[in-house]
Amino acid sequence: MKRFRLVVLSLTAALGAFGLASRHVANAGSASQNLTVSATVVASCTIATNAVTFTGYDPVNVNLTTPFDSSTGSLVVACTNGTTATIGLGQGSNPLGTSTASVPLRQMASGTNRLGYFLFQDAARTITWGDINLAVPTAAVTYNATTAAPQTFTVYGRINAAQDVAVGSYTDTVVATVQF
Predict the structure, then answer these.
(1) Mean local confidence (pLDDT), 21-29
(2) Please, how many CA atoms are within 13 Å of residue 115, restricted to the half-sphere of its CB?
(3) Going by C-beta distance under 8 Å and a sequence separation of 6 or more, which residues neighbour residue 117?
(4) Of 165, 131, 154, residue with least CA distance to 51
(5) 41-65: per-residue pLDDT in tens?
(6) Per-residue model confidence (pLDDT) at position 135
(7) H or E segment at 177?
(8) Which strands make up the sheet holding 106-110, listed edge to edge?
(9) Cα separation of 49 and 155, whole Å?
(10) 16, 34, 106, 172: least buried by Cβ within 10 Å?
(11) In this structure, is the dihedral angle defined by the CA atoms of residues 93, 96, 101 and 102, taken in order, positive or negative?
(12) Are strands 45-50 and 151-158 parallel, antiparallel or unpaired?
């Protein structure tokens, strides 16, 4: 009988270690609290360019009295939805001395030779595309993003008629900026 009691006591102790022998189940309790999750979405924009390429300017015949308007390029802008941005085009690398941000007098260069040109916001070529300049709000384009999808803005080029320039390849670099 002693041996039976020893086995029962050993078994009870073992079961008690696992919590199986106790008739009283302990309640662990619980507490709850809400976890706030938040995020801040920032305004952000990107800009890419597609070149304005003038080919075949002829100041002696075709463009003696008619400006060369056949060239366009584009700006591709993507901004965070809800962002208001301003898109501007700089004066270029070779501006005429009286050029300003709002009325840029851009020139392409071929060595020391210069060929004047203009960039416009509209197909009728009436609104000059200038640099970001708050004093002249129409010089740059205001863009209110309603989606993050890229938006394309056409840049309309013009070389005025009858410019007496030498034969050659003329180039300029204009900085495109999106400010947000």
Answers:
(1) 66
(2) 26
(3) 54, 106, 107, 108, 157, 158, 159, 160, 172
(4) 154
(5) 999 999 999 999 999 999 999 999 9
(6) 63
(7) strand 176-179
(8) 45-50, 72-79, 151-158, 113-120, 106-110
(9) 10
(10) 34
(11) negative
(12) unpaired
